[in-house]
Specification:
Layout (H helix, E strand, L loop, with lengths): L2 H8 L3 H10 L8 E2 L4 E2 L2 H10 L8 H11 L4 H14 L13 H14 L1 H15 L10 H9 L7 E4 L6 H8 L4 E6 L2 H12 L13 E5 L13 E6 L29 H11 L1 E11 L10 H9 L3 E6 L13 E6 L10 E6 L7 H6 L7 H17 L11 E5 H4 L8 H4 L9 H29 L14 E3 H6 L3 E5 L22 E3 L1 H6 L5 E2 L16 E4 L9 E3 L8 E2 L3 E6 L6 H8 L2 H6 L1 E2 L5 E2 L5 E3 L3 H41 L17
Length: 680
């Protein structure tokens, strides 16, 4: 087991475990791993902790995790025991199976009753998910699953998810009226967990009967477990970018009623798989990346989906709504045409981005956090209005537009909502445009004043130091060993595997994550997390120094955590230095650690330049002198920040006014007169 796992068992930080290793001679010696990442014998560690009374803090999930490590057990049968435990309730008597280790059963009972069945199912699935090699899949946030389920008609009683993962979409369908649930997943442990989770989705708290929940294991495209099944609705978040989806062996498959999907268009194979399982007039809602809406290779299939009326709507979600967070995903709403049914002459396009973000949010770029209540209301209002009157719905400026089929069937058949729903100055009501321009003017005035004030702080005389006046220095690694610093690293970015949250982590989905982009752009935490499959994520405290792990791009390299960062999680590709305030000043540490020469000395690589934080060197100065240097570095930071904000707002204001002039929404100000040019 790793030091991080020891910290979770004992309920302490990893820094505390490091201190135990140094200070206690009887602490178990490493039993494997490497010098930088040692592994310890689980039995020896538990005995050492037990002798010191340090195991009481373990959570129910960690106790179950440890019991499973001691007695490795196949997960699938334990899923059924979770259902049985919930059905029996606390004190419900002996379990029907007694073939499992007593410690495992005791830990499972505690976890189910104290942490809940979802937590227990997650722990049971972790180990096998870590070993899974399936890529291109991401979990679906509960809020997005609810939105997708609410796009279905209320009459949808049988629902299929052919790539069900942990069952989130089917659980949402159950909450919104579905009765019979069908799922399939390539990973056996996912299918088992989903089945147990859905069995426990009964409205009255009692497990659903097995005949209403069926989840099979297998590849839905290559080995469909439900070849004859026709359902009222399909919900799906399929794998993305899978070139090995079965193109060659499925070339003549009857599901391809809208054209054989090209090898690079696995997403369009999933779309047709969903349509093939629908009853006539049944609906499918599928979460897809933006590329399938416009890639040239998928044009013929897209054209047929549009021509036949199978595609009813495409909704663009804001980046940050779901993994991968840097991409704005699309929802495709499809309806299987009924033979001899009415013609569907148009497709609805919805732009679910906020109408106007404030300056900070706009500068933050794509990694924004979705406001789910606003997003859900916007999409559902538009969808309801469209379905109530598909022919007469007029659309909504900058939000939704109904496009005739004939206008879509061109050379590209581009189904990207942004192409059809554009926000221009001419689209905005006059009072909205005036308020926007006034806000930009006020921001620009304030930020220009802040830049002037900051520049005055750094234009004073800065005395030179004699060339022969050197400093004694120490590396960050030396300071960590001496206890003056704690070095923490952000989680590895992984797409699959089990959750492995550190002791300092918080699994609350509302907790923001500080990302590399935030550091480079000088913006507050904008990420969403934690990723269910991320590694240890640490909570940032005021005074922490956050360093980018790579020096391959421009922008600030370090940040001293203040109020905006306090409580956020440390994102991937970031390092965190936590100084002892009695020995090191935070701004002093950040200024010297991020110095260009220091970064260059501690870096390796050419194309991707990685910074080894342990090799960064810092002067050894008295604390009072550190604070003087720290204040100077802080003033320089204020100057950079003010310049960045003023520059970004200037660009935003100029772009808005230029667009207004070009669209005829605004006229030149009264003080602007024509310039007369003369040719010499």
């Amino acid at each position: 087991m790793t030091a991080a796992e020891i910290s979770r068992i004992a309920g302490v930080t990893r820094a505390t475990v490091s201190n135990w290793r140094r200070r206690h001679e009887d602490f178990p010696s490493p039993d494997g791993g490497t010098e930088s990442s040692p592994l310890y014998d689980l039995h020896a560690v538990r005995a050492w902790l037990r002798n010191r009374g340090l195991t009481a803090a373990a959570s129910p999930e960690e106790e179950l995790r440890t019991a499973l490590r001691l007695k490795p057990t196949e997960s699938a049968p334990l899923f059924d025991l979770v259902v049985e435990l919930v059905e029996r309730g606390p004190g419900g008597g002996a379990l029907s199976s007694a073939t499992y280790d007593g410690a495992v059963l005791a830990a499972l009972v505690r976890c189910v009753h104290e942490a809940g069945s979802d937590a227990a199912l997650g722990v049971l699935a972790e180990r096998e998910l870590e070993e899974s090699t399936v890529g291109g899949t991401y979990p679906t946030p509960d809020e997005l699953a609810d939105l997708m389920a609410r796009l279905l008609p209320e009459a949808a009683r049988t629902v299929l998810d052919p790539a069900c993962g942990g069952g989130t979409l089917l659980a949402a369908a159950r909450r919104h009226g579905a009765i019979a649930l069908h799922g399939q997943d390539l990973v056996p442990v996912q299918a088992g967990r989903a089945c147990a989770r859905l069995r426990l989705a009964g409205a009255d708290g009692r497990p659903l009967p097995p005949d209403l929940v069926r989840v099979e294991t297998g590849d839905s495209l290559r080995a469909d477990a439900y070849p004859a099944l026709a359902v009222d609705a399909v919900l799906c978040n399929p794998p993305y970018g899978d070139r090995d989806w079965g193109h060659d062996e499925l070339a003549y498959d009857p599901r391809w009623a809208y054209g054989v999907p090209p090898r690079a268009e696995s997403e369009l194979a999933w779309v047709q798989h969903a349509l093939a399982h629908l009853r006539p007039d049944g609906y499918a809602v599928i979460l897809l990346p933006p590329a399938p809406a416009s890639r040239a290779s998928g044009r013929r299939v897209r054209a047929e989906l549009v021509r036949t009326g199978a595609l009813r709507a495409v909704v663009s979600l804001p980046a940050g709504a779901a993994h991968p967070f840097h991409v704005g995903l699309h929802l495709w709403v499809l309806q299987r045409p009924r033979p001899s049914g009415p013609e569907r002459p148009s497709v609805l396009f919805v732009n679910a981005e906020p109408e106007q973000r404030d300056g900070a949010a706009a500068r933050r770029g794509p990694a924004i956090r979705a406001d789910w209540s606003e997003l859900t209301e916007r999409v559902l209002n538009v969808w309801t209005a469209f379905t109530d009157d598909p022919v007469g719905y007029p659309g909504e400026p900058a939000v939704a537009r109904v496009v005739p089929v004939v206008d879509l069937l061109g050379d590209t058949v581009d189904l990207t909502p942004a192409r059809h729903v554009r926000t221009t100055s001419a689209d905005l009501a006059p009072e909205v445009l005036v308020a926007r321009l006034d806000g930009l003017r006020d921001r620009l005035t304030g930020e220009a004043a802040a830049l002037l004030a900051a520049s005055e702080q750094v234009t004073r005389e800065w005395p030179l130091i004699a060339p022969d006046q050197g400093w004694r220095t120490a590396t960050v690694a030396d300071l960590v060993r001496g206890g003056a610093l704690t070095l923490l690293k952000g989680p590895a970015a992984r797409d699959t595997g089990g959750a492995a949250l550190g002791t300092e982590s918080d699994t609350t989905p509302d907790r923001p994550v500080l990302t590399v982009d935030d550091i480079a752009a000088g913006e507050p935490p904008s990420g969403t997390g934690p990723h269910p499959h991320a590694g240890p994520m640490h909570v940032i405290a005021p005074g922490d120094i956050v360093l980018r792990a790579s020096a391959s791009r421009g922008g600030p390299r370090a940040r001293v955590a203040g109020e905006p960062e306090a409580g956020a999680l440390l994102g991937p590709h970031l390092n965190l230095l936590r100084p002892d305030p009695a020995r090191l000043d935070s701004w002093f540490l950040a200024g010297f650690a991020a110095a260009e020469d220091n970064i260059a000395t501690a870096s390796t690589g050419s194309t991707i330049v990685n910074v080894n934080p342990g090799r960064l060197r810092l002067p050894l100065l008295p604390l009072e002198q550190q604070r003087r240097y720290g204040e100077a570095f802080r003033r320089l930071h204020v100057l950079r920040t003010a310049a960045h904000l003023a520059s970004a707002t200037s660009e935003e204001a100029a772009s808005a006014l230029a667009a207004g002039l070009a669209s005829g929404a605004v006229a030149p100000p009264s003080g602007v007169t024509a310039r007369t040019r003369t040719l010499d």
